[in-house]
Amino acid sequence: VPLLCGGKSKRFGSDKNWVVFQGKPLLFWMLEKAYTLVPKERIFCLASEPIANLPVPVITDGVPFPGPLHAFFSCVRILPFSHYLLLPVDTPLLPVSFLSFLWERIPSSFALVPRWKGKIEPLIALYPGELTKVYPTEKKSFQEWITLLARHNKVQWIEEKEIASFGEPEQIFWNINRAQDLKQAEKMWKEHRLKI
User: Fold this and answer.
1) Residues contacting 52, CB < 8 A, separation 6+
2) Each residue of 86-139: pLDDT tens digit?
3) pTM of this prediction?
């Protein structure tokens, strides 16, 4: 399970890994979710620079990653596994039940990506390691890469109706990019008593 720990978080104004949500840093929220899926040895953080004192390995590429796709491909080169459940650090409202649903689909899925109201969620998705060999990045953005996969019928979509069985999609995929996003996440937590 590679966890995208990002870079300097310019939009937020500080390192999002250590932004506190409900009394706990975002990074620890996502690590704890990953612990419910796989052994600790199969969890690693993808970061633009080293992160000290973490219970899991941190993969850096020597230079700041130009984007999440580059970080993911670097991870695949260093730690080859049959499948990867890619997760961002800034989505603390993701239910563990939804992540378990993704993980359990490994035997029957090539690439499994959520899609709702015309939006795709390529950073919360299941990918096989071999996919990076068949479809290299070559300066593509993650959105462009997914579009390419879709054209070749290599993506299995999780549609909104199925996602909704785990909660409101907007809440499930709510990501914290700015201070106001954090406030809204706190509000969602309190108003809906979310089980995450």
Assistant:
1) none
2) 999 999 999 999 999 999 887 566 788 999 998 889 889 998 887 767 666 655
3) 0.85
The pLDDT score that the predictor gives to residue 135 is 67
In which element (H, E) is residue 182 found?
helix 179-192
CB 80 within 8 A of CB 129: yes
Find the helix packing angle between 96-104 and 26-35, rounded to 10°: 40
In angstroms, the CA 60 to CA 79 distance is: 12
CB 11 within 8 A of CB 51: no
Element (H, E) at 3: strand 2-6
Under 8 Å CB-to-CB from 128, ≥6 apart: which residues?
Answer: 82, 83, 84, 110, 111
pLDDT in the model for residue 77? 78
Token representation of residue 191: 């108003």
Q: How far apart are CA 185 and CA 17, in angstroms?
A: 16
Q: Phi/psi of residue 4, each to 5°? A: -75, 105
Which residues in 37-48 are b (16+ Cβ under 10 Å) and which e? beeeeebbbbbb
Burial of 137 (0-12, 13-18, 19+ CB in 10 A): middle
Dihedral sign from CA coordinates of 64, 65, 68, 73: negative
